[in-house]
Specification:
The chain is mainly α. It is 61% helix and 0% strand. The protein has 6 helices and no strands. Helix 3 runs antiparallel to helix 4. It is globular. The chain starts with a helix and ends in a 5-residue tail after the last helix.
Length: 85
């Protein structure tokens, strides 16, 4: 149990090194992380803010997001590609 706690503490103290390998240059990811990190237990999250950050990530992607790339190997996609006679 202490090992997991130590890993989490290490990651939370330096998220740019341990958590954001592929997203380190996306400011909105940092915005969301630090916003959530500063919330107290009883605080109500501003979901509109988080949603807007996610929308900004989606809209600013280079190259644009292509959901078909991620669906190519899923069981659902193979079912969708079956043609009915």
């Amino acid at each position: 149990m202490d090992e997991v706690k130590d890993i989490k503490t290490k990651c939370l103290k330096n998220p740019e090194q341990y958590l954001w390998k592929k997203t380190k240059n996306i400011q909105e990811v940092k915005n969301i992380f630090y916003y959530i990190k500063k919330l107290e237990y009883a605080d109500k999250p501003d979901y509109a803010y988080i949603k807007q950050q996610l929308i900004n990530i989606y809209e600013n992607q280079v190259p644009p997001f292509n959901p078909n790339i991620y669906r190519a190997n899923s069981p659902q996609s193979s079912m969708n590609s079956v043609q009915m006679n």
